[in-house]
Amino acid sequence: MSTQVASTMELEVSNQADVESEVKPQMIYRCKKCRRIVASQDNIVSHERGEGQKCFKWKKRTGDATNGPPECSSIFVEPMKWMQAVEEGNVEQKLQCIGCNARLGSFNWAGMQCSCGAWVNPAFQLHKSRMDECRF
Q1: 42, 74, 68, 40: which is closest to 53 by C-alpha?
Q2: Considering just the CA atoms, what is the radius of gyration of the chain in Å?
Q3: In whole angstroms, what is the distance from residue 74 CA to residue 124 CA?
Q4: Whose CA is closest to 69, among 22, 37, 134, 116?
Q5: Burial class (CB in 10 A: 0-12, 13-18, 19+), 36
Q6: 88-136 residue pLDDT tens
Q7: Could you tell me the pTM of the whole model?
Q8: Using CA atoms, how far apart are residues 108 and 90, in angstroms rounded to an integer?
Q9: Cβ–Cβ < 8 Å for 131, 118
Q10: Which of 68, 53, 63, 102 is nearest to 82 (CA)?
Q11: Element (H, E) at 84
Q12: Rounded Cα–Cα distance for residues 121 and 111 (Å)
């Protein structure tokens, strides 16, 4: 009988862990100008952080030599239906909000370099400064 109680308790603990893992707050990104949802956490394409200034050509480097890990100033997402320039078949172009035509970022099928120094290929880049991060 004690083994049955122990196995029941283990099952309850594992069920609680499953419930806690499912309740993660979802992050969505909205256009700062019109508040339209442009991306969610599910759309983000992750990339390994680069080595910062060392990754850029010497012409693009600033004199700052920061010791901390570089912070990404934008997010990279998968292509989405609201991206009209992508739907039109362009290879590279600016990405504009479908609601207010504010410039949110850019894309390039050949790839582009993140502010942290990492290359992302293909790149659909949305600038964090042009969007609001919202949790729900």
Answers
A1: 68
A2: 21
A3: 10
A4: 116
A5: middle
A6: 888 999 999 999 999 999 999 999 988 887 888 999 999 999 999 998 7
A7: 0.70
A8: 9
A9: no
A10: 102
A11: helix 84-87
A12: 4
**Cβ neighbourhood burial of 4 (10 Å; 0-12, 13-18, 19+):** exposed
Q: How many CB atoms lie within 10 A of CB 46?
A: 8
Which residue do the tokens 């109680």 mark? 5
Provide the token pair at 16.
Answer: 């609680």
Could you tell me which residues are beta bridge partners of residue 125?
Answer: 76, 106
Distance CA 24, CA 119 (A): 29
Gap between the Cα atoms of 79 and 72, Å rounded = 19
User: What integer pLDDT is reported at residue 71 of this predicted model?
Assistant: 80
The amino acid sitting at 110 is A
Give every CB contact of residue 97 below 8 A, 6+ residues apart in sequence.
Answer: 31, 33, 34, 36, 38, 82, 104
